[in-house]
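Support request, please re-run this one:
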Amino acid sequence: MTNEHPSEDQNLYSERSVAEAQETGNARVDDAVAGLSRLHGRPAEEHVAILEEAHGRLRDILDDLGAEHS
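Re-run finished. Output below.
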């Protein structure tokens, strides 16, 4: 039988790991990752927009780095 509802401890761990993500030393990356803390307490239907925003910001950073090394 599978557990359809994660335990409370698992939920706290996943939230804590986003909130306490180790700094990368790159302010732009750290700011994009910190934006994920907005997931906590939001309804699931808002998660996609928050995740897409962070993904887009990180993709832009990678694009900028690629242009610098071309």
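Residues 44-68 form the longest helix (25 residues). Helices lie at 8-19, 27-34, 44-68.
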